[in-house]
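It is worth pausing here to work through a concrete case rather than discussing structure prediction in the abstract. The textbook approach is simple: state the sequence, then state the predicted structure, then interpret. We follow exactly that order.
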Amino acid sequence: MLKDNEILKDIIDFFSQVFEKKGNDRYFYAVYKTEWLSKIGLDINSAQEAATARTTKELQQFLKKKYENRIKIEAPVAEGMTLHFEGENNVANSKKIKIDSSKLQAFDILDLETGSAFEISLSDAFAEFFKDVLKALLDSRVNKLYICMRNHNYKGASKSGYLKVKDSEMVQQYISLAKLYKLDIYLVDIFPQCNE
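Step two, the predicted structure:
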């Protein structure tokens, strides 16, 4: 098994304990289990934003404990990077620019051994896709981007989350284009029971 697949398997296994399947004959989606919400100090009436944030934090803590220094959680984009520009055909005129990564966004999980970034998108995966791709393209440490999503019930849409992203021709074009920049993008269904 590839090393980054170990982490991916742990992510999928983690979410099998978090979600349960809901829906109808046409569309199934993942909702938080009542016992999971209780475990993280919430209930079914709590805001989705709170459930998403606390669930992601629980996953990050679980992975950090298991993989220790191999991974970084909330890893700033371009952390420690310096840009070097040569000027006027000689090194004497070169210019270095240090990147202040504290002013940039962060990867949910960054596997330092494999150069794999894992983004956990439990709400609007379609909107987050483009932001996540940009982050990965701008960070020289990243060569694989795993965008981990679920189907969800977004304002009664017939397709939301994983299915909407996976089926988007525009998203597929971005995935193809990213290969030109040596970035492989994988769309991951973290609760595949909804799409079996």
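Step three, interpretation. The chain has six helices and nine strands. The mean pLDDT is 90.
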